[in-house]
Structures are given as structure tokens and as C-alpha cells.
Amino acid sequence: MELEAFFPFWDKLTPQQQERVRTRAVERCCEKGTVIYNGGLDRSSLLLVQRGQLRAYILSEEGREITLYRLFQRDVCLFSASCIMRSIQFQVMVQAEKDTRLWLVPAEVYKDLMEESAPAANFINEVLAARFSQVMWLMEQIMWKSFDKRLAEFLLEESALEGTDTLKLTHEAIGNHLGNPREVVTRMLHYFHEEGMVNLSRGTVRLLDREKLETLCRK
To answer: What CATH number does the domain containing 157 carry?
Structure first.
């Protein structure tokens, strides 16, 4: 995917600005499981997803994870560009959930572009607003929705993303997405199994009764 496809304001940039972005941007291929960004301030870049799938998450002092949001083709990862957002007080990690191809635009290049181009600054503000809306939605889910509903929604979402009812997911991986200990996930999955909603085997969760799961989400 061409670099300019990620920026709806590309035609509003000067030829010099376009060339600066093209010259400094680099392509990178990341294997599934690679931690692309670990929250540090050094060597930060704007990540543009050409293909694949990324996961943005935070890590507690105790080592527990929770997924904030995912990024897919044509998405832009803003939290990896630390120098653009120095007021953010929490560290976001970014990991490849599938083999992924990226454009990396150095954060300082885009920061300079924002100072020169109002459309470039507006674009970042729009992306930032969208990401914070996703994070706020997540916080509401954690605070107000029971874990059985959150787990059912997660399994249905994963099934839709993967295009299959057989999910290659460990209980620990599910816990990392939802911010819950593995033991809590295991207990709830066994309950789902007893209710005939899923079948469990090593490293795999197979959805058996989507209607029951969807009904649980609506309660």
C-alpha cells in the first residue's frame, strides 16, 4: 500500500513536505508475536498498518496485560509516536498479532509536519479522539459489565475476525486481552463448556452455540 493512502490530506501538502515524509518513512515486516513498541521515548514512530494486525495494550507493575484496541489494514498507531504526545502519562505497548507489514514515519518528522500543516494536525487530533473513545469504551466495559458478558463478546469478536468458530487461543492469552488472571478465564470457560456454549481443548476454544453466547451478551 502506498504511503500517501494513509493520509487523507496528502494532496494539501507541498511537494517538499511530501518528499520529506517519503524520504524518512521506512517499511518493516514484523512476525506474529513481535513487540514493535515497548513504551519508551527513543526511536518512536508513527505506525501505519499496510497489512496484518496489531494489538495495543498496557502492562501493570504486576505483569498483567489488557488490550486497549487493535489496529488493522490502513490504521494508524498514534501512541507509538511519543514525542507527539508527551502529555500522555501511561506507556502503551504494541505487538503484532499476525504477520504484519508497516510503514514507520519518524515521530519528529510528523511533529514538524503538524507545525507546518493544519490538515496534518487535524488528522492527528481525529485519530487521537477515536483512540481515546475506544479506551473510554473499554473502561466502561470493565467497570460496568460482568466478566461472563465480556468474555462472550470477546469470543464472538475473535470468531468474526478469524472467520472460524475454532479459536487458537490459550486461557492466558484471553486473560491478557481482557485484563483478568488466567484462573478467572479458566473458571468462566469451564462454565461456558458446561452450558454447551464452547468446547475446550489444549490451546483451543471452539464455539458450539453462538446463539447462547449472543443472548448472554444482551442480558
So the answer is: 1.10.10.10
Q: What residues are paired with 94 via a beta bridge?
A: 37, 56
For the CA atoms of 59, 64, 66, 72, the dihedral, rounded to the nearest 10 degrees, stands at 70
- Cα–Cα distance for residue pair 122/164, rounded to 1 Å: 38
Closest CA to 56 of 24, 33, 29, 80: 80
Of 116, 143, 170, which residue sits at a domain end?
Answer: 143
String of DSSP letters for 98-157: S-EEEEEEEHHHHHHHHHH-HHHHHHHHHHHHHHHHHHHHHHHHHHHS-HHHHHHHHHHH
> Is the same domain home to 55 and 109?
yes
Per-residue pLDDT averaged across 132-149, rounded? Answer: 90
Kindly calculate the radius of gyration of the chain based on its CA atoms and give it in whole angstroms.
19
Is-contact 91 37, C-beta < 8 A?
no
**Quick one: cell of 32?**
506474529
Q: What would the pLDDT profile of 18-34 be if each residue is shown by its tens digit? A: 999 999 999 999 999 99
212 lies in which domain range? Answer: 145-218
Q: In whole angstroms, how far apart are CA 45 and each of 8, 75, 120, 179?
A: 19, 14, 15, 26
